[in-house]
Structures are given as C-alpha cells and as structure tokens.
Write a sequence for this structure.
C-alpha cells in the first residue's frame, strides 16, 4: 500500500475481498435507502455500497483519503463530508424518522464516544452496523452478572437491540490491529422498549453504579436511594450494580423522577 496509515486515526483498512462481500451481504443494502458510512478509508466498503443504494454520505476526517476517494469515485449519489464524526450532526443530512442506515469499520479509539454521540440522534436511524473491537461488542451484548456487563451495555440496550454478527480476525485488515474485531448490528427500538427516563439522571446513576460495580447497591447508590426506596422498588439493596437489568435501572430513574 503506498498510503501511510495514521495510527491515532485507527487506520486499519479492510483488504480481504471475501470478507468485504460478506459484510456487504450483512448490510443488505437496497436501492431506496439512504446510508451513512463513518470512516471511509480507502473505500473498501464505500466502493461496493455506492451503486447499491439511493444515497451514500461519507464522513472521513483524513483529507488525503477524501481527496483520493473524490478522484476515484466521482458519483453524484456519493456525498463526502471531511469532518470529525464526533462533531457531525445527522440532522444535517436526514430529516425523516428511521430513514438512515449507518455503517462503519470504526476507528476503535472513538467507538464509545461515537456510540454516545449517536444515541442523541437515534430517531433518525433505522439501523447501524459497526466493526468494533470484539471486547466492545461483548460489552454491548452482555447480560447482567457477566464480566462485560457495564455502563455501555445498559445505555446501548436501553436504546437498541444488539445483534452480534461475525468475528473478524486481525489479518483481515492492513495493517492488522492488535485486537480481535467483530461486526455488530444495532436496531434502535421503535417504539422505545423502555419507558422514557430523565437522560441526565439515567446517565449519572449508571455512571455512579458502575464506578462501584463490586459494592452493594445500597452503598453504590446511597446518594439517591434510601432503604425505603429499595423496598418500594423491590430491588435488593445487597445486589451489586452489575446484577441489575436495564429495566431495573429504568425503574430506579422513574422512581426518583416522580
Ligand atoms: N472503511 C475503511 C475500511 O474498512 O477499510 C476504513 C476503516 S479505518 C478502521 C477507520 C477510518 O476512520 C479511517 O479512514 C480514519 O481516517 C477514519 N477516522 C478516524 N477518526 C475519525 C473521525 N473522528 N471522524 C471521521 N473519520 C475518522
């Protein structure tokens, strides 16, 4: 490859044509759909995806890559945004609820802030497909009591159905990353699966809870919950934060926000 990848931008490019075919099949793109790709790189997914959809927006931060893609893929249905995706507003490209399909082989170092950024604009999104560090996919899909169950799990599962799709080995990328990868699909619940919560309170409670994930809840959440609150909620004060379901965290927030 003549291109010199920048490590801090997570530039690990997909090079295995068979895997790229499988990923495109998993995306199941349709001619009437509007897609957004995050981090186009050298266009491994952009190239096959462009002719299969109505419109493809691409957000890519590296000017060199945008320039190459513009030169080699001059298609009116492909729209480039040379921008940091963490500052990109989905409502600048879409306005119809559940109209946007999002995919990306993500730079792993921004995957958690990116997910939180995207959760703010979920009503526009139909589904999301991401290549992530396998460990992160395990966290997204974890169940209460499991080692990977944490803050990211509760937030993600509050908003989305999580469907891990396939594992991807390091040698499918150039240069190969040091970690294993996995491809995951997220489908925002529509209508929402859980009742609405005050998002700031939800965020604060989960953050506080998982900072003390091995403590009893009565200690971890003592700032918010008294013994009477636990009784009212029918949640054991001895339980550990990593044993509570998403529904129980939602119940705590609703109880506090009445
Ligand atoms: N899609 C390509 C592929 O699969 O071969 C490239 C994937 S590579 C793992 C991640 C891409 O995201 C790189 O092209 C990188 O320049 C871009 N990127 C990194 N940080 C970004 C950011 N904050 N906003 C937008 N793009 C970013």
């Amino acid at each position: 490859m003549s291109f010199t990848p920048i490590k801090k931008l997570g530039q690990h490019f997909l090079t295995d044509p068979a895997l790229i075919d499988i990923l495109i099949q998993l995306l199941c793109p349709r001619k009437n759909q509007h897609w957004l790709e995050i981090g186009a790189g050298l266009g491994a997914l952009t190239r096959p995806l462009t002719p299969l959809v109505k419109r493809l927006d691409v957000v890519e931060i590296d000017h060199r890559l945008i320039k190459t893609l513009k030169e080699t893929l001059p298609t009116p249905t492909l729209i480039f945004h040379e921008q940091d995706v963490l500052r990109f507003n989905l409502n600048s490209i879409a306005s119809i609820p559940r109209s946007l399909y999002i995919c990306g082989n993500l730079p792993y170092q921004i995957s958690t802030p990116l997910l939180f950024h995207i959760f703010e604009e979920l009503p526009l999104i139909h589904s999301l497909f991401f290549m992530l560090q396998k460990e992160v996919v395990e966290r997204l899909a974890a169940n209460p009591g499991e080692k990977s169950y944490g803050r990211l799990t509760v937030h993600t599962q509050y908003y989305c159905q999580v469907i891990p799709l396939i594992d991807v080995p390091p040698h499918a990328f150039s240069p190969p990353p040091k970690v294993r990868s996995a491809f995951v699909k997220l489908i925002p619940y529509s209508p929402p699966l859980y009742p609405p919560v005050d998002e700031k309170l939800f965020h604060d409670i989960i953050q506080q809870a998982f900072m003390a994930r091995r403590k009893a809840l009565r200690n971890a959440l003592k700032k918010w919950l008294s013994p009477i609150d636990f009784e009212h909620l029918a949640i054991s004060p001895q339980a550990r934060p990593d044993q509570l379901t998403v529904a129980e965290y939602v119940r705590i927030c609703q109880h506090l926000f009445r």
Observations:
- The longest helix spans residues 199-211.
- The beta strands are 13-14, 34-38, 55-60, 78-82, 100-105, 125-133, 160-168, 173-174, 181-188.
